[in-house]
Amino acid sequence: MIPRSRRRPVRSRWLALNRGLPARSRAVLAVLAFALPLLLWSVVSYVPFIWHPLVEVTDAGDPSVPGKYAYLAAEQLVEREVFERRNQELALAGAKLATGHPANPIFLPAPHEVMRAFVTAFTTAPQRPGDVWLHESLWHSCRIVFWGFAYAALVGVPLGILCGCLGLFSKLFEPFVDFVRYMPAPVFGALAVAVLGLGDEPKITIIFIGTFFQLVLVVANTTRLVDGALLEAARTLGAGERQLITRVVVPAILPNLYRDLRILIGWAWTYLVVAELIGEKSGISAFIYQQQRYLHFDNVYACIVMIGLIGLATDQLLALVGRGLFAWERGHQQRGSVARAARAARALLAGRASAARVGSVAS
Questions:
Q1: Edge-to-edge, what's the strand order for the sheet holding 99-103?
Q2: For residue 9, is pLDDT > 80?
Q3: pLDDT tens, 253-289?
Q4: Three-class SS of residue 54?
């Protein structure tokens, strides 16, 4: 039997600092992370006495009775006060009263309506000639995000590495980058349209601006976290400055750099809606704007959830790829650890042998 003084309370296992949770607990918490918001949404949608500020009219009563609120009609959403005032008018006239049930505003559809929209939004043809289908809008938005972030990474990653390694680049570029990153990317929209036109180019430019300057600083700070002992050891073995960057710094930061890019691609998605409304409206943002104009808020919510699901799926896919690319970071893969230790030992012995040969020649 475990002594009472050595027992660890259950609560401390969940709240202990720098200690992981069991796999089963992690799975339960991951499910609750989505189940709790869905439960709250369901309660607000389906429980009438929680928050149903309007009344959906099922029967407008006697339409022949005149009055200030005689405009009530079946399937209409009205405020409670309007519904009660109309019934007062009908009661004074001795006519049939209106009936209805509590309802939420049209901009808050129930979960089952949004789930149904996941199918109907793809199968329903556009209401106007020339409008695009939902799958076409999603594909267009994915292309905008991809190219905007790809250009930002293509330029920002090398520049960030150079800023983190060399004081010349750090002092020359980082002050200006730090200055521009505080400027909201959408303020460049008018200039981007004037220079690049109304097509996709200004949208890609906005995503580039929104991620590039942040990316440079993040990559530079990640590069500065490289262990200085690795650089000194490489210099001792005769590595030049270029070899230090390509053979030591870049391999050392690859896992953290990969994680940084995973986080920053989420920032690119946050600029998507603003970018697609610049110039000619396009992509998923134009589809959302169109559905809002038609009061199809179930489609609006469905599109918002789709964006989140695409981002989450992309992040999890990149995480899975990262676990394969950087398998040595996983502590339970002992084979990789032993191989690295063996390689390090061989390199150390080779370095000592070279030093001994140099000493014998000098003597």
A1: 77-79, 54-59, 99-103
A2: no
A3: 999 999 999 999 988 998 988 898 888 888 898 899 8
A4: strand
- Residue ranges of domains in the chain, CATH in brackets: 54-103 (no CATH), 120-325 (1.10.3720.10)
Q: With contact defined as beta carbons under 8 Å apart, do 208 and 152 qualify? A: yes
pLDDT digits (tens, 9 = 90+) for 122-157: 888 887 777 788 888 999 999 999 999 999 999 999
Nearest to 118 by CA among 309, 306, 288, 290: 306
Question: In residues, how long is the chain?
Answer: 363
pTM for the whole structure:
0.77
The Cα-based distances of 286 to 36, 115, 205 in angstroms read 31, 21, 18
Nearest to 344 by CA among 208, 229, 220: 229
Residue 48: CB partners within 8 Å, gap ≥ 6? 101, 102
Question: Residue 185 in contact with residue 242, Cβ under 8 Å?
Answer: no
Dihedral sign for Cα atoms in the order 346, 348, 350, 356 = negative
The amino acid present at 299, given as its one-letter code, is N
- What's the mean pLDDT in 88-105? 91
Tokens 């520049």, residue located: 159
For 83, other C-beta atoms within 10 Å of its C-beta total 21
Inter-helix orientation angle 250-270/134-165, to 10°: 140
Distance CA 117, CA 158 (A): 44
What is the amino acid identity at position 252?
Answer: A
Helices (H) and strands (E) in the chain, counts: 15, 3
Q: Are 234 and 244 in contact (CB under 8 A)?
A: yes
Give 285-298 pLDDT, tens digit per residue: 889 988 888 889 99
Radius of gyration (C-alpha) of the chain in whole angstroms? 31
Quote the DSSP letter at residue 66: -
Locus of tokens 């309506």: 113
Q: Residue 118 pLDDT > 80, yes or no?
A: yes
Q: What is residue 351's predicted lDDT score, i.e. its pLDDT?
A: 53
Which tokens in the block code for residue 205?
């430019």
Please give the Cα distance from 358 to 356 (Å, whole number): 5
